Amino acid sequence: MQPTGDTKARPDLAHRLRTLRRACLVALGATLLVCAPRFASAQAFPNHVIRIVPFGTAGGPIDSIARLYGEKLKARWGQPIVVDAKPGASGTLAADAVAKAPPDGHTVMITLPLTHINNAILQPRLPYDPIKDFEPLSQLATGGPMLIARASAPYSNVAEFIAYAKAHPGLTYGTWGNGSNAHLFGELLKRQSGIDLVHVPYKAEAAAHNDLFGETLGLAWANPATARGLAQAGRIKVLGITGSKRVRTMPDVATFTEQGYPGFDLDSWIGVYAPAKTPQPILDEWTSALREITRMPDVQERLAQFGFEPLGNGPREFVANYKADYPRVADLIKAAGVSAE
Fold first, then answer.
1. What is the pLDDT of residues 240-287, one digit of tens each?
2. What are 54's strand-pairing partners?
3. Which among 298, 290, 309, 111 has a CA at the least distance from the CA of 225?
4. What φ, ψ does residue 57 adopt, rounded to 5°?
5. Domain boundary residue among 206, 241, 276?
6. pLDDT per residue over 118-153, tens digit each?
7. Does one domain contain both 204 and 225?
8. Helices 297-305 and 61-77: angle between axes, nearest 10 degrees
């Protein structure tokens, strides 16, 4: 009997199937080689020192909060925590360092809206993309800037200050950087009231406060933590609080809105970001840790002492708040007449 055509084709078919199987195994091996380091890093996290880059200078309010969380993270993970401040350029240096850090979860940033909203609107050529280069983890707390004056100042609230400023044009005020919410609020107050104020930006609020006490500045802005400490020491008066409500630890100080000045009710926040492309299991571990730490009674008490309202949300809420705040900050920048400098 002569072999049929089908019988002749069988060796070729078998050969092709063996070739295809080898190709699939090679492709699978390559995929595992590419993915294995990422999976391994996620499973082993954390396996060495954690670096937290705070907005502002060492010893500043955000640095202090970073150290508070660092203590809790060290106890949770058993790894050293380094708080590595990189001040200057309105937080751009710090944000850029984190954006370019390895996306393995061992470097995060704790910051204010300035680095991811205000700078994005005012500085079109940032060295980082505030959305594409970061993964939002949690907003720890809220609390807006406060307008402060020396304890010896002849005014104690916003209206009294405006009356004084009209009689003494050219007063200076200090903030922690161009485009910061403090800067925007200062320029908005200037426009609304028709007073002549001169903005003086500093790398950090502590430097502005030193000049305030040295009487080379007329007044300054302060984060809640700093303002509360200085007020308790009897060194300053808090003229007004921005944001939507009063601070629990300073209940006698009225908001700008309560004092009759609209547009100052934008709440600021303290947020934590990881570099983009950090594996999802590591992001989840970070978010879980931050939320649990924020719920601790002693941490909530410390945040309240700093003048902040504890929040401790997750990435979804963080993104929703970011999207809601972005147009409000843009409107505030326009109302204040602030441009990139």
1. 999 999 988 899 999 999 999 999 999 999 999 999 999 999 999 999
2. 110
3. 309
4. -95, 165
5. 241
6. 999 999 899 999 999 999 999 999 988 999 999 999
7. yes
8. 170
| pLDDT given at position 88 | 85
Q: Is 232 in the same domain as 294?
A: no
Q: What's the half-sphere exposure (Cβ side, CA atoms, 13 Å) at 252?
A: 7
Q: Pick from 241, 256, 283: which residue ends a domain?
A: 241
If you average pLDDT over residues 9-15, what whole number do you get? 51
Highest mean pLDDT of the ranges 18-22, 38-42, 100-104: 100-104
d(CA 281, CA 271): 19
Provide the 8-state DSSP code for 143.
-
Residue span of the structural domain in which 66 resides: 50-143+267-336
183 pLDDT more than 60: yes
What's the pTM?
0.81
Task: Report residue 117: phi and psi, to 5°.
Answer: -120, -60
Q: Specify the higher pLDDT residue, 33 or 149.
A: 149
Instruction: Please tell me whether residues 160 and 73 are part of one structural domain.
Output: no
239, 149 in Cβ contact below 8 A?
yes
pLDDT band at 21 (very low <50, low <70, confident <90, very high): low
- Split into its structural domains, the chain has a count of 2
Say if residue 233 is in the same domain as residue 150.
yes
CB-count exposure of residue 76 (10 Å: 0-12, 13-18, 19+): middle
| Shared-domain flag, residues 177 and 314 | no
324 in any annotated domain: yes
